[in-house]
Amino acid sequence: MAEYVTFNAQHAIDYIKNLVIKDGYNLFDPEQTLTAYEFGDGNLNLVFRISDEQSNSIILKQALPYARCVGESWPLTLDRARIEAQVLLNHGALSPDYTAKVLHHNPEQALTILEDLSHLQILRSAQINAEQFPLLGQHVAHYLSHTGFYNSDFYLTAQDKKAKVSQFTNPELCQITEDLFFNDILHEHERNNYPSELQSTVSKLQNNAALHLAIAKLKAKFLSCPQTLLHGDMHSGSIFVDQKTTKIIDPEFGFFGPIGFDIGSFIGNLLLNYCAQNARISEFVTRRNYHSHLLTCLQESYSLFEQQWLTLIVEQTTDNNLKTAGYGKYFMQQVLQDAIGYCGTELIRRTIGLAHVADIDGIADAQARLDVQRHTLALGEQLVLNAHTCNSKEDFFSLLISQLN
Fold this sequence. Notes:
Elements: H1 9-21, E1 35-38, E2 45-51, E3 57-63, E4 66-67, E5 71-75, H2 79-94, E6 102-106, E7 111-115, E8 121-122, H3 123-128, H4 136-149, H5 158-167, H6 171-183, H7 199-206, H8 209-224, E9 228-229, E10 239-241, E11 246-248, E12 256-257, H9 260-280, H10 284-316, H11 327-352, H12 358-361, H13 366-386, H14 393-404
Antiparallel strand pairs: 1-2, 2-3, 3-7, 4-5, 6-7, 8-10, 9-12, 10-11
Helix pairs in contact: 4-10, 9-10, 9-11, 9-13, 10-11, 11-13, 13-14
């Protein structure tokens, strides 16, 4: 077994050349000269782009044995690279049009080689600029419904499901999610990050006993409800897009958890952008039109996600008990309430926790930024507190509109 080595650009080139020449991987013409550079701006990993003289390129991603955003004082398992590659392979088999393609994986070096998606845009950056993607909701709905259903008890045998739960056990990265989503935001913590002007708002939120109880329920389900193989980090920075294409990347937080978590996280990021645009787009009609686009995307993504799940339950369920009339609708009602709750926690934790979003942090005017932050906190709190009252998607959309107006 080769000893783990932290790569630089030359390591990346040498590794690719070895794969092409010695192992016969059809990645590049072996006669071509390769160049590489590291461009990762994430919190955890190194990311290299390797190109030939004809501008063909691939991505090499390597996990570091610590959190890059903090340093060696925050050690992390390298096994997350295996988790990421295997989630991509699993999800790619079920939703190939919307999943980044894995070309090679080396668990000893904690690296994965992926197709280069640089011809697309990162969704977060595009949405900060108020760009519209009319197919985004449809694509995300397909990805989450199909990867969700075919990794669930509705389709897998009990033995296969338990084996997959074990295969994708991801305790260290789940601990990060548990801390940032559920623990830190309800207490004073050194990882929390917000301006002093928000202190009274934050203190009121942290002293809300009903909110504590609702988030405790959400955390308990996250800890103990292995419903399906989640992406685990379904935010706008994990999605590449153009007008016709959507590709999901970076599922290193993947594990078996509650179905509502991924769709709730995705919707939460749409709402973070919605709130941020109140300070970014000054012209009223332009802002209203973009807000309308975001709400259409949100409604379409959840409606199609639910519709496709219900169709798959009827047509593809292998367990006779779970085929019982009415159970599918009951089950999806629980998923909806979970999704609303996790959406609310995403809004709160991205505002006052460790990991913020550029949609809000990039607002130049300090007062406008504070107004947006207060809005996201209030919206997140109300979604968490009222999730249990939503028995249908129509209830959810009505609640949402009442809080946005």
